[in-house]
């Protein structure tokens, strides 16, 4: 890149500016000419008609890229399935969700790309529920002209090893049949509230409550219902209310162990909802809360539920990631899916 100060029509003919990049905002009698613009014939004619102002421009040389082309290449490199790139505006391109789902960010790779001078990628949180058309990330380069080798290096980092996932993608919700088990003694209105809370959350994300079971607080009875939901109905997800992660001899955990299931995580590094637990048996994920009434409130379960409903095989590592941003005060409600943002939070 070569930077030149030009007195239009005096020390250089106007047409000599064709293809150069304006490095500063310029106000002309017929309107502004924005910085970063690559000057075309109409722009040069406007400059000549304005009486030949003094301008500072960059002349691209071999190995240089204009900011818009650099940003387009960055967007193509980092945006995976479920993401649509917009048009560049001052070298920034917004990346928006093509459908409702959960944003996934390969943040280690994103950080390595951002260590490249003048290259910028910024996003929402990894694991955040997003709606169709919602901006989930953006790419930008800082200077108006950037060495092509920096963009090529960013592209290579984004590609990663064979089989690597995209830097950014939005995984869509699946229409899943979900089961529920309540080990608390619920009847009448309490049972209706429990099922209504589950339906509200599941249906908001495109899934359905297939059945709810209310066994006696006994390992044998719980085991029968759990086996029915997993073995016979083959439900991919079961939600459990009334079982705390703090009680290792709860009849539910006894039943789960007898059936050959396993606990993946006791407790979640987030609040409210730190006593949530996650288990697995025969390919089914089992998400449990210590009280049935918590399903009607906003808790860390509302960070896990969207991911489970995309079919993600959530395990201990994914749960551990919730600690960053896991203090779910009201200012952090944006992390929740829309259905939970105005729900009451549990006390304590």
Describe the largest sheet: 6 strands, mixed
Global mean pLDDT: 92
Order of strands, main sheet, comes to: 16-15-17-20-19-18
Order of helices and strands: EEEEHEEHEEEHEEEEHEEHEHEHEEEHH
Tally of separate helices? 9
Helix vs. strand class: alpha+beta
Number of DSSP E strands: 20
**What is the CATH architecture descriptor of the largest domain?**
3-Layer(aba) Sandwich
From the 3D structure, determine the CATH topology of the largest domain.
Molybdenum Cofactor Biosythetic Enzyme, Chain A
Give the overall form.
elongated
What is the fourth-level CATH superfamily of the largest domain? MoaB/Mog-like domain
Whole-number tally of structural domains: 3
From the structure above, extract its key features.
alpha+beta; Aldehyde Oxidoreductase, domain 3; Molybdenum Cofactor Biosythetic Enzyme, Chain A; 3 domains; six-stranded mixed β-sheet; four-stranded antiparallel β-sheet; 20 strands; 26% strand
Task: Explain briefly what this protein structure is.
The protein is of the alpha+beta class and 348 residues long. The protein contains nine helices and 20 strands.
């Amino acid at each position: 890149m070569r930077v030149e100060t030009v007195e239009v029509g005096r020390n250089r003919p106007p047409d000599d500016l064709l293809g150069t990049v304006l490095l500063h905002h310029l106000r002309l009698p017929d309107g502004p000419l924005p910085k970063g613009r690559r000057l075309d014939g109409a722009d040069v004619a406007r400059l000549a008609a304005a009486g030949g102002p003094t301008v500072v421009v960059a002349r691209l040389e071999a190995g240089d890229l204009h900011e818009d082309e650099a940003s387009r290449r960055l967007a193509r490199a980092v945006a995976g399935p479920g993401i649509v790139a917009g048009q560049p505006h001052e070298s920034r391109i917004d990346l928006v969700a093509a459908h409702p789902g959960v944003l996934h960010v390969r943040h280690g790779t994103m950080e390595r790309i951002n260590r490249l001078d003048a290259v910028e990628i910024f996003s929402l949180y990894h694991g955040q529920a997003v709606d169709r058309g919602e901006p989930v990330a953006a790419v930008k380069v800082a200077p108006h002209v950037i060495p092509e080798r920096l963009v090529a290096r960013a592209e290579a980092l984004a590609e990663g090893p064979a089989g690597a996932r995209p830097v950014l993608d939005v995984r869509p919700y699946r229409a899943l049949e979900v089961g529920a088990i309540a080990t608390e003694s619920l009847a009448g209105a309490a049972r209706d509230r429990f099922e209504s809370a589950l339906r509200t959350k599941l249906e908001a994300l495109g899934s359905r409550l297939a059945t709810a079971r209310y066994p006696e607080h006994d390992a044998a009875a719980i085991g029968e219902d759990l086996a029915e939901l997993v073995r016979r109905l083959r439900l991919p997800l079961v939600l459990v209310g009334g079982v705390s992660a703090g009680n290792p001899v709860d009849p539910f955990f006894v039943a789960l162990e007898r059936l050959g299931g396993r606990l993946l995580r006791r407790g979640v590094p987030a609040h409210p909802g730190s006593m949530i637990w996650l288990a697995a048996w025969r390919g089914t994920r089992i998400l449990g809360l210590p009280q049935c009434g918590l399903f009607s409130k906003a808790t860390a379960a509302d960070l896990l539920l969207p991911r489970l409903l995309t079919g993600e095989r959530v395990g201990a590592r994914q749960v551990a990631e919730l600690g960053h941003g896991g203090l779910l005060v009201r200012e952090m409600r944006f992390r929740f899916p829309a259905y939970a943002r105005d729900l009451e939070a549990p006390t304590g």
